Amino acid sequence: MATHSLIAREDLICPQCTEIYCLPVLLQCGHNICKLCLQKFWEWKRCQECPVCQVVSIPKRPPINLALKIAADHYRLEKMNAGRCHLHEEKLRVFCHNDERPICLVCQMSKEHKIHECCPLDEAAKQKKEDIAARMEFLKEKLKTLSKTRETWEKTRTFIQRQADENNRAIREEFQKLHLFLFEEEESRLQVLAQEVEVKVKVMSLKLDSIEKQIKSLVSLISDTETRLKGDDLSFLLDYKDTKKKLKCNIGEPEIIRDILINSATHQASLKFQVWKKMERLVKYVPIALDPNTAQANLELSEELTCVQYRSQRVLPDNPERCTGAVCVLGAGGFLSGKHSWTVDVSRGKDWYIGVVQESIKRKGAMSFKPSEGIWIIGGIIGDVLWAQTSPRTRLEWKQKPERITVELDYDKGKVAFINAVDSKTIFTFKDKFTERIFPYFSPGIHDEGSGSFPLTICSQKTTITISD
Length: 469
What we know:
It is a single chain. Helices cover 37% and strands 16% of the residues. It is α+β, with helices and mostly antiparallel strands and 469 residues long. It has three domains: 2-82, Herpes Virus-1 (2-Layer Sandwich); 165-281, no CATH class; 292-458, SPRY domain (Jelly Rolls, Sandwich), CATH 2.60.120.
């Protein structure tokens, strides 16, 4: 601070523009010039001479006089803080809108500001404060939006963890069922093996006991006969008739026991396939699943995401995919081509809607249920009246209230057909042109006489195992 005050104002004046230095550079001759002033002078002269003493500098970029720049900047700041013009020592009374800074009356009349738009300080202050206040309001709104978004994202992060826990539990439960099935199947097959072993070992034990008795009898007969053969001739002949009779015992060939070995082919052949085939009774196949991330907050989905019904409202993230404009849920994945079908059990429902919608439907705010908005659905059974949501809507006739309806989507031909699954008769068909991803649509209705809605259920399909060469 003391060093700056030692430099007189005259020493801070550029000899070229006669104003306080702005980025001064030091020439080889020792003179200081504003960098911009020097560049303009050199361009005009077409040579690199000093504007003060005309000494030509060696062709190189002159360095910035850092000490002089700091002193000039400090002097300018001191005068500004004192409310005086650093050029004319006059009070700052006018605001230049072009340069956006306060100036004195002398500056206003100078060549630099003569054509600029200027006004009194108090008037400028009021205008600029209003401008800054407006900008501040914009920033405050931005801050409010960001804070609200942060809060939403924090809740979403918590919800993601909750979803992960629920999925973890559901996966573990399903695998526990599979593990139990496999364990019981293993025990059953081992039991069948053990029973076969028990029976065949028992049979062989009985056969062995029988042959053991035959062997013992023969050994005794052979031993007795050999003793008689070794006796004297008279004793042998006296016993000959009896010996001959004993040797006439009828001993047949040993029995050939068939199918006595363990039937390994039955127990081991295609074991995995046989178990897999048996699992058909345990495993249900549903062609589509409901997407929880699209479900309105009042809807409750079953664990396997095949059933939906109206319940009390839950706190869910308002993610872009979620439908809040209607009490509905979409199928997962969607379709961009091909033929697809699924059957929905609507027997217990009232005021339900099923069908398909395109990906870009308005999910927030009230939905407009018509094909021009990308919605192709039927439903709304109240008083035994079924409607197709055309524009205007079409009343549908039937002889018997449908209990299960099959939705057949042919994306490439732009067709959505609704078929009574009981008698295979077509209820209604939409024809249009699809240009984006199509999703199945389900709305179970809000309630049934205040007791809660009945569910809509996607029916499982029969699975078959096909073996090919």
